[in-house]
Write a structure and sequence with these properties.
heterodimer, A: 572 residues, ten-stranded mixed sheet, five-stranded mixed sheet, 25 strands, 36% helix, 23% strand, B: 331 residues, alpha+beta, eight-stranded mixed sheet, two-stranded antiparallel sheet, 14 strands, flat
Amino acid sequence: MSIDPQHALQTVSSDAVVDNLVTQFANSWDCVRELVQNCLDAGTTRIDVWTEYLPGDGFEGTIALHVDDFGDGMDENIIDNQLTKLFASSKEGDLTKIGKFGIGFVSIFALKPQGVLLHTGRGGEYWEVLFHADRTFSKTRLENPIEGTQITLFLRGDRNAYAEAAKQVRSTLKKWCKYSETEIVFEDREANTSEVINEVFELFGIGGALISPEPGTEFAIAFQDEPEYEFFNRGLTLATTKIAENVLVEARVQRYRHIGFKVKSRYLEHTLSRDTVLRDDNYQTVMHYLDQAAKQISSNLVVELAALAAKPRWTADDLIGYGQRLRFLATQHDRGTSNLKIFRGLHGEAYSAGDLFRAWQADGRILMDDVPTELSERLTKAKIPVIFGKPAGDSSAFPWYDLTEILLGYASKHASSTIKGAVIDFFSSYRERIAKGLISPRQVYIPVSIDAHVPANLVTFLKAAHYVLCRGFETPMAPFTTITPLDAAPVPIFLVQQARMGQLKLPPQNNSLRQAGDIAVNREHPHFLLLLRLFAVEPQIAAYCLAKALLLQDDRDLAMDGALMNAAREIQ
Amino acid sequence: MTELLPGAVIPSRTLSDDQADLYVDSFRKVLRAARLNSHYPDGRGLAEQAGVFATHVHRGLHKGLDIDERTGLPTYKEWTRAQTDITLAAQQLVQLGSRELLVKKAAQHPDSAHSRNLARYDYYTQINGTQLVPLGTMNVAVRRVDRQRQLAHFHVVLDKLDASGVFVRYSIDVAQHGESAIASVDGRDLANQSDNFHALIYQFTSLDSEFMFVKLASMAGLEVERVIKGTVGPFFLDWMQAPEGLTVAPGGVVGTFGLDMAAVDVEATRNNDPFPSSSNDAKTRATYVQVANKLGYRVFKDRKFVCPHAMVGDLRAFTQSRGTKNVVYGV
């Protein structure tokens, strides 16, 4: 055995610099992470971290913290020129190592140890290095073989301090090392407890997936309500936050509001202060892969929605899961791009965003209800989509907002190829219109009795009004029919009929009545009855007023007033 | 005796099911206690795959376990059989269909093929997804790239079940000047290994690290930093021929784990392996010394042991008798 004279930790700078490096971390116990990192870089496949209490003569004893690895170990050259020399790391720029700066080891002095004992061996040399409280050290060559490196920190303290130290060591390992690719075992020998620190690298959430775009980079990614963003290198934590702005550039912040991820990658590095991930070119490579992973789980989400939409019967979990997925899909910029049928009809059918958008374009409405009814069944049979959900206005409205967003996404995608579309998209005018168009069939379809023939006393009047409209617009229209409301609820003066339906509905908004189908007149409407009486004395004015009433309800084509008046004058 | 290839007969002994279970248990404990670092074959993977040999796992579907008498490890045939079963497990489970149905059929006809199918179902269920031990794979990772100097540093890892019957891992740190002797590096710093390099490494896996070092250093454009050869095996069982002076206690298993390193950062050439290595004649040795001086590498050979606690003292005495001091773990 040979003993070397005492040395001091060397640096090219002053003692003040060393002091700063010693206290470089906000939490002194973070030095345990640095020791673990060195173990990993030494190629160990197991790290044993253990604590013990060595009673002293008095009230206080010694707290011993051990970190043992079975990796490469160190010879004298490494001890002298790397371990005890600050900023002399041989790992800088090495993609297979985590450590970079050569300053991690010195952080153990932040705990103010009474001494640090290090045993190590490499290449047939075995050494004991004893660091004193003042950071000087002496080294001794040993005869007996040592595998890897075993470090022991000796701290002064009583049993309470020991218990706190053991707690801090464990929590530090859990915070920084739980996804280590190397097994880490923590043993509290006083409490006689032992546990494996490592946890499975996974992420719970909707559409969760493990994605490895290339060797050395792996994502656990999922949709979440309150996402967390975590970065690791070989499983050691580099950054973890719930604030997207802390780790993502502005352009990505919105996209990842509802996507959480864990990424471990050889490309990622911590900053000198270890408080966040370094945003260099390698970080950009990881971000590129992250976007691909997000796109993949977004696609997975659509596939899962389509599978749920097609499922014959739903459980309560299906219902909840469907709502969650739709909500997350609505947050994605590619939300309207899929042709899969993700919307569930009330009677077992499914519809794509395109199907619903076309229905909305045709009618200005998308029918939505949460309970199947005879009406919804008839509508479905007539190929009119009635999708599952509760429209706006209901406190539990679902999923009208998400549907609006998804259809808006669809509209944006399909409109952005034209200048007009781009302008519409820019002002998001679709959003409000689509949201208004999501409506219950019960609010659209009115229970009425349709007259087989227009009652004789009304024929002349209706023909006159019909003439005014056709003549005024110079457009042929089907003759008016008449109906009687069956409910006590007020029914508007005009309804429209679709040829295939045999069912009357409220006229669509923003859609010309002249193109809406056959027009039916509510012959019990007070205004109609008033005009009927007027027709007996002033037929031209009454016919004009009935035609005008139809347009007023529709609130459009007011510029045609003159033409209508001229047409009314022709009535004999 | 096991015939690996036509004409190539491996001396082997078949353990009975009971013996096999004891062996598997000891094998796994020894590997766990060996604390193998990244220079050795993957100990955890080996232990996991060895679990497939246990009778409670294969449920009598296989009879006995063939042990290579040269190394005390399961034969190549046994490892490949386990790998095939693991690889096909998912597919086999689909083909076997519902367990419920198999249980019903097996209950009706206890001695029929249905019972065997039920055992197969449970076996494949249990081994499905078991980690596979690489019997011959090579990975090349980029350590760093200096594009201005056209210099790329690689870390090469080759895992192989060697023809000698032991598991071998070669770890090579090498720098390459210019184009693709070892591998090309793409824009994302990923290595695409060359076929020639792959073939070369495979060719020399049975040889020691020094030979590999010299061989690689002789290739144009390569600067070799380290070649490390870690081996799992041989294991010595009580019925095997052990090196002179080493007596294995009845029922005991002595695991040995060799490390053979030729590197520019080894401080001095030392041999701490109590087992004799392939000897060269004096002339060849002298040539090696000259080459080592020229290339700047030194060689370190070591071996660690895992044995029953009761044997630790004897084993230490054995290594001392060979003039070495080795790490010995008791289990």
